[in-house]
Amino acid sequence: MSVWMIKAALILPVSILCLPASSISAAEITLTVEVGYHGVFQLGRPFPIKIEIANTGPPVEGTIEATVWKGGATKGGGAFPVHHQRRLFVGAAARKSATFTIDPGSVSRPLAVSFHTPRSTVTEEIDLRRHFVPSPLILLLTESDFSALPGLSRASNPLVTVSPEELPADPRAYAGVATIVLYEPSMHELSGAQNVALETWLAGGGKLVALGSLHYSLYQEPALSRFLPVRVSGLKTFAALPELEKRYGEPALGRVQAQDATLVDGKILVAAQGSPILVEAERGKGKILYLALDAGRPPLSRWEGLGPLFRDLAAPGTEIPNPAPAAWDDSVFSQLLVNRAVSSIYLPAGAFAGWIVAYFVGLGSLTWLWERRRLAPRSLGAAFAALIFSASLGGYLYFMRGGRIPDGVLVTSTLMESLPDGQVEASSNAALFSTLRRDYDVVVEKGWTDFEPLARRSAVAEENGITIEDEGSRPRLRLPLKAWDYRLFRLRAVARLPIRVELDNEVDRRLLKVSNRSGRDLTDCWVIISGRSSSLGDIPAGASRTREFPLTVDDPAAAGGRARTGLRDVHFSDPVRELLLRYSYFPQEQGAAWGGEAFFFGWVQGAPRGVSVDDGKVLARDYAFFRVALPVGGEEE
Amino acid sequence: MNLGPLFREGVEVHVAEGHGFAAYFYLLILLVPVAFLALFLPGLDAQLWIAPGAFFTTSAVAAMILITYFTLRVANQEFAPWRFVPLRRRLMEEKLALGEVARGHLAILCLQVLIFTLLAAPLLVWAGAIARVPAARIAAVLLLLFFYGLAYGIWGLVALAAWERKLEIRQVFVRAFFISAMILTAVLYPPLNPAGFLLAYLGDKEMAPLVLWGRPWPPVAAHFLFHLFLLGAGLWLYHRALRREIDS
C-alpha cells in the first residue's frame, strides 16, 4: 500500500466526522435578547440590549450583529441601517453575552440580531412594539430585597429595579432614563466604564436620588460617596422633622433615625438639628438629591407623606431645551465647503493654475522655436509629444499621489453653552467628507454622547448604512462614503470649561466681567448688549476682562431682534468663523430666540471635538465657539 | 509610409505654416476657463453637490464638444481654405486616384483629431487626478474623445467633397450638422448623445436600454453602433461625393 493510500485512509474518516459538525453548527447557537431595562425602554431614545449567545456545540468564533433602521421620510431623508457589531469567541458548551446601545428610528421595523460565523448565520427578529413606554424610566439601584419603594413607581414613569452589574457602560444607554434612585447600592462593583457612563449621563442632564439607609457605611465607600453632595459620618436620632412634615404632610413622623452628614456641595433643602436631611446639588446639567432618611424601614416606610416626597424626588428634571441650537444641515455644510478657506484644503487650485501656466509656457516655447525655424518638423513633433506626455504624467502623479489632496476632511463645529458650576454643554456638529470612495473609522471620544448621524436626502439605503464596532471602550463607527460624498452627524457632551461671564446692571452703566479660568485661550471675543456689538479681543487662559457700557437714553435694552442687529457688526478675519457665526450659531430663522438678551461669545482654542478619524490621510478642521446668553436687567422673562 | 500629397499638404498648411494653430489655440483657450469654472462652481446634481466631483466630467464633456466642433471645421478646410489645392484639380489634372485622395484626407483627419486630443489630454488628466478618477477611466475618456472626433469629423470631409467650391454652404452645413446631431441625439435617446454617454459613464449612472422593434438594446451597444453607423455613413457619402466630382 502506498503512502498516499495510508494518508487517505487516515484523513477520510476524520473528514467524514467533521462534515456533520459544520452542517449542524447553526442549530447549536441560540440567541436570547433582552431589550431595554428588563424589557422596557423609552420610545424615541437610545436603549441597551443584551444578547446572550448560547453555544451547545464546539467552540466558535463569529460576529454578533444587531441591526436597526434610522432616518426615513419623517426625518426628511432616506432610511438607512445601523449595524452594531462585535467579534466574539464562544467556547464549547458555553454562553457569552454582548451589550449594545441601539437607537432605532421607529419601532415599526423589528430589531434584527444575528450571529455570523464563517459557516452559518443565526438570526432573530425582535418586535420592539411590545417593549416601549412613552415616558422616561426610573431606575432603582439597590442590593436590598425591595422590589419597589412606595410612590416611586408611576404609570407615567415606570420603575425598574436593577443591580449594579446591569447598569450600562455606555452613557447613551441612559438617554431614556429620567432618574436613578440609589438605595443601599453596592457601587464598588461598578466598572470604570460604568462609572464614567453614569457621570456622563448625570452631567448631561440626569437626575440621581440617593436615599439614605441605616447601613450608613455603604454611603462612606468612595465608590458611592463621590456621587453624594454630603459626607456621611454616622447615624443620628431626630425627635421630629418638622420642616419635612410641613412640606409633605402630616401626620408627624415622630422619632426617627437618619444619617448624620455634613454638606460638601449644593444646597440644603430640608435640615433638622443642624444636619442636612434633604440636599440638592448640581452636576453640569444634572442634579443630585440626597435624603438622609431610610425610606425602606419604619417609621418612614409607613409614613403617609412618603408618596408625595418620592414623587417630588423622582420627578424627571425639567429639561430646558436650548432655545437656539446650532443649525447643522446640508445647506450650512455646503456653504462651508465651497468657502475658499475650507475648499483650499482639498482643492489644489493654485497648483492646477501653476501646471496650466507651465503647460502654456511649454507650448509657447515650442511655437516660438517653430517660428524661428530652430526645430526640424520631426524634432518639433517629438518635442510636442514629449511635452504632452511629461505634463500629463507629471501632473497626474503630483495631483494623485503627491499627498496634496486628502482622502477626507473632518470638520467639527462645537457650540459650547455656559452652564453653572464652570461647566459647558458642548454640542458638536461634525461632517466627514471624502474625495474618494472608501470606508472611514470614526472614533467617538470618551465623555461624548448622543451621537446622531443626520439622515440624508436621497441615496441608496445600504450605501448610507453605518457599522458601529463596539470592541473597546470607545465605539468605532465605520462609514462608507462615495467619492465627493459627505456625512453629517451630531454629538453632545458636558465638559468643564470654567469661564465666568457676568453682566452687572447698575444705575447708569452695565459692567461686563469675563474671567477665563480655563486652560484654553479665548480668541476673537465679542459682546452684544442692546443691539450694539463690541469687540473684546483675545482673553488668554487665566486672564480676565472688564468692560463698562454706559446706559444711554435711547438704550431701552430692548426687544427681540436686537442681537441680530448687533451681529451685523461682528466680523472675523477667518471667513469660516464668519460663516459659522451667521449660518450655524446665530441663523436668521432663530432671531426670535435672542430677544431681550445680551450675548458674549468667543472662539475656544484647542477644545475637544468629540470625534476623530485615526487616519493620516484625513485632515481635520475644528471650530469651537463659546456662547453665553446674559439676561439684560429688567427684561428677564 | 507614403500618405500622399493631400496629407503632406494638410501638414504643410496646418502645422508647418501654422494655419491650424488658431484652432488649437481656440480649443485650449476655451477649455481652460471651463475647467476652472467646473472646479469652483457647485454641481447641479444634488449628489454631485461639490464641484470637484463633476470636475472631470464637465471638463471631458467640454473637451468632447470642442474637439468635435474644431475637427469638423478643420476637416472642412475652414482655416486658410485658399492654401488647399482644389479637389477637382487633384482628381482631374494631377490624376490622383480616388483612394489616394481619400487616404490623404482620412490621414490628415486622424492627425488633427490626435493633435486636438493630445492638446486637451494634460488638462483632462490633471482634472481626473484632482477628481480622483481612476487612470483607466481617464484613458478610456481620451480614446472616446478620439473616436467622437473621427465619427463627427468625417462629416467635415463630406461637406468638403460635396460642396468644395461653396464655402458658405459648407460652413452652414457643418454647424447645422453638429448642432442638430447633439440636440437630436439628446432629445431622442440621451445615451446616443456623446455628452449624455460621458455623463452616465463617469457618473456611474445606469442608462435606460433602447427599445427598438419591441426589443431592448443595451445602451452601450446602441451608443457605439450609432456612432459607427455615423462614421460609416459619413465615409460612404464622402466616397460618393468624390465619385460625383470625377463623374461631373
Compute the number of strand runs of chain A.
Answer: 33
Tally of alpha and pi helices of chain A:
11
* Gap between N and C termini of chain A: 100 Å
Q: Mind summarizing the main beta sheet of chain B?
A: 2 strands, antiparallel
Helix content estimate of chain A:
10-25%
Which strand-content bin applies to the residues of chain B? under 5%
Low-pLDDT parts of chain A are: 12-24, 556-561
Helices and strands in order:
The complex is a heterodimer of chains A (637) and B (248).
Chain A: H1 3-23, E1 29-35, E2 41-42, E3 47-55, E4 60-70, E5 80-90, E6 94-102, E7 111-116, E8 121-126, E9 132-133, E10 137-142, E11 159-162, E12 177-183, H2 192-203, E13 207-212, H3 222-225, E14 230-238, H4 242-248, E15 256-263, E16 267-272, E17 275-283, E18 286-294, H5 306-314, H6 330-338, H7 340-346, H8 349-371, H9 377-401, E19 408-418, E20 423-434, E21 438-444, E22 449-453, E23 466-469, E24 476-481, E25 485-496, E26 499-505, E27 509-516, E28 522-529, E29 532-539, E30 544-550, H10 562-567, H11 575-585, E31 597-604, E32 611-613, E33 618-631
Parallel strand pairs in A: 2-9, 5-23, 10-11, 10-12, 12-13, 13-18, 19-33
Antiparallel strand pairs in A: 1-3, 3-6, 4-5, 4-7, 7-8, 14-15, 16-17, 17-18, 19-20, 20-25, 21-24, 21-32, 22-25, 23-24, 26-27, 27-30, 28-29, 28-31, 31-33
Chain B: H1 5-16, H2 21-40, H3 51-75, H4 87-93, H5 98-130, H6 135-162, H7 167-188, H8 194-202, E1 210-212, E2 215-217, H9 219-247
Antiparallel strand pairs in B: 1-2
Helix pairs in contact in B: 1-5, 2-3, 2-5, 3-5, 3-6, 3-7, 3-8, 5-6, 6-7, 6-9
